[in-house]
Every structure is written in C-alpha cells, then in structure tokens.
Write a structure and sequence with these properties.
2 copies of one chain form a homodimer.
Chain A (H helix, E strand, L loop, with lengths): L17 H18 L9 H8 L3 H7 L3 H13 L10 H11 L8 H13 L2 H27 L9 H18 L10 H11 L5
Helix pairs in contact in A: 1-2, 1-4, 4-7, 5-7, 5-9, 8-9
C-alpha cells in the first residue's frame, strides 16, 4: 500500500506535498479513533474524514477503502524493521526478539490487544494483517536458516516452532505484563540463550 | 472468594440452594455483559443486578463489590486446574502447556484479549488477576523444580524464563492465532521437546 501515490496532480506548494500532509492526517485520525476505543466494525470513512478535516474523496483517492487504510495505519504503529548485523546468530536473534511487541507509537498499547482478535474474526482482515507481520517474521526465519546453514543450529530444527518460542515470551510480557517476576530488559537475551541451550540436563 | 457463603438464612427449597442459583445468575450476567463489550470501567453492580434479575442487595450479600465479583467471574472462565500425573516431567509439561489459554467458556474469546490490558492498567486489578493465574503458574513451577531435583533438568535452570518459554507460544497461538503455519494440537509437544533439547547444534 505504501507505494501507492495520489492521483491528484494539482500544483503543489514548496516543501511537503499537500497529498502527503493529508495522508498523514488521515492515518493519524484512524489511529486516534482506534485508540479511543472504536472497533474496526464501527470505524467509518466518514468518521475518519471528519476527524482528519478532509473530504471523503481525498481518502478514496489514496485508499480503495477502510480495510487498506486500516492496514496502513497498523503498519505505521510498528515502525521500521530492525536490521540484524548478520555476524552472530545469537546476537541477531537477541536483536529481533528485543523488537517483538515494541511499537513506536504509544497508541499501540490501547489499539493492539483488542484489535488483533477482531482482525482475526474476518479471514480477509486476518490475511491483510498477516501481510504486515510477514516481513518481521521473515527476518527471523532467515537468521534461523542461516544458523542451520552455518552449522550453529541443529539441522532438524523446526523453524516455525522455534520462532514461536522466541516470540511468545516477549509478546506476552510486553503486551500482557504476563509475569511480574520477569525483567523485560534482560528477557531477550535470556530467551535466546535458553532456547539455544535447552533445559535438559546433559 | 469461592469459600464465602451467603449470609442469608431464609428457609430453602429442596435441591439447589436459592443463594447458589442467584450466584450463578450473577456470575453469568457479569460474563454476558463483558462478552458484549462492556469495559471493566463501564461494568456496574446496577447493570449486573438488572441482567441477573436480582436486587443489588443480593449481590452485596455475596461479594464486597465489583472487583471481587469480576475476579470470580474471570476465574470461572478458566475452569478447573489440570492435574499432572507426576511421573514423567516431559508428559506433565505437555499436559500443562496444552491447558494454556484453553478456556472452558466460549465467551472467553470475546472477553479476555481486551480485558487483560484493561486489568493491567490498575495495580489493584493486576494483583487480583495475578491471584487467579498464580495456581496454574505454580503447578508448572513445581514440575520444573521436580525435574531439577530428579536430575532430568539442568540445575542452573531459570524457572521463570522457562515458564515464559513454555507458556508464550501456546498463548499467542490460541489467543492471537499468531502463525497459520503452526498446528495448535501438536504445538504443546513440539514446544516442550524443543525447549528440553535446545536448538544449538552439538
């Protein structure tokens, strides 16, 4: 979605193009409405337009409808992708685990916990949302595949199960404050080292 | 809370005592209101009484207020504790991991994802909610401690981190349908075996 450009070709003032300013206002209005407790169902192009101070036509010039706009807004919450250095598999995994559930926008804390279950109830929304998290998941998959290729990780590794093991603890601790005994700051390193070594006595 | 009894001592009809029937209706009304989207903040003794078809005094005879009633209702969603057999550490862990995020009540799917973040915003609610999950967490802690004592698990095991590793994957898969590539039915065994063995090449 983010490579779509406005079809408006009106003359533009210097500095930031007008369409980009409107896009920003529309994304912000969408996130504000969600953070104030709007469900996806209740969210409407009318309400977003009113909140952003733009006409509905301005939204439809840029987005095909509510769903694509919603997904662009959710993608915005996540910020830019982390960049593994590519040297040590352990260090790269700690970096990626540390980025899990870390949203760049404080509204995420209000929006995400209730929204994800609502997203999941619609197969279309679920697929769109999976597209948002797919690049992050792919980064971790590549680090694990590299570890196997380099002989650092077991050749019979189940990559998807391992990703769930690396992701789950951080996500429940960041989103749900699952266990007050855990330290969110040391957790990425503890998770990676425990998954690497295993807990079985040798 | 569950060992509190009604202070009403009116004569009772045979069969189920009247107070128990009223208690059931009150708990059910609380869960219904939450499943329909009521926030904890919006939930009121008035609304619960009206929905349950009882007077407010009936609720106050049994619960000190909204918070204790809420916690009894949430405890109800979880059902009874799983019972590890106590022979194999691996089998006990698979049983406990399989019970994570499994609610006995279909309303839980609507209630829990949005409620837990709201619970966490109030230190009092957070503490009350931790009391609900503490017995489940303690069961897993005991199995891990037994594994260390029996020499099956590493003596330097970090029990809290290991519990997060065992719990996180199931919770994100059950509550968020995190990754369509994972199989919820085989996941408990896969999680336990991967955490036991570790992913490092040997």
């Amino acid at each position: 979605m983010s490579d779509m450009t406005s079809t408006a070709d009106a003359p533009r003032s210097p500095g930031r193009p007008r369409s980009t300013r409107a896009d920003e206002a529309i994304i912000e209005a969408t996130l504000d409405l969600l953070a104030e407790g709007s469900t996806i169902e209740a969210l409407s192009i009318e309400a977003i337009a009113a909140r952003a101070g733009v006409g509905k036509a301005t939204i439809y010039r840029r987005w095909s409808g509510k769903d694509t706009l919603l997904m662009d807004a959710l993608r915005r919450l996540k910020g830019i992708l982390p960049q593994p250095a590519g040297h040590s598999v352990r260090d790269d995994l700690i970096l990626l685990v540390g980025a899990i559930g870390r949203n760049v926008d404080p509204r995420a804390e209000k929006i995400m916990p209730c929204l994800v279950p609502e997203v999941n109830r619609s197969p279309d929304h679920y697929r769109l949302y999976q597209n948002i998290i797919a690049p992050r998941r792919q980064l971790m998959r590549e680090v694990l595949a590299r570890g196997v290729a380099e002989g650092v990780l077991r050749p019979d590794l189940d990559v998807e199960v391992t990703m769930a093991l690396l992701t789950g603890p951080m996500l429940i601790q960041r989103v749900l404050q699952w266990n007050p005994e855990l330290n969110e700051h040391t957790l990425p390193e503890q998770v990676v080292d425990t998954v690497l070594a295993g807990i079985q006595a040798r």
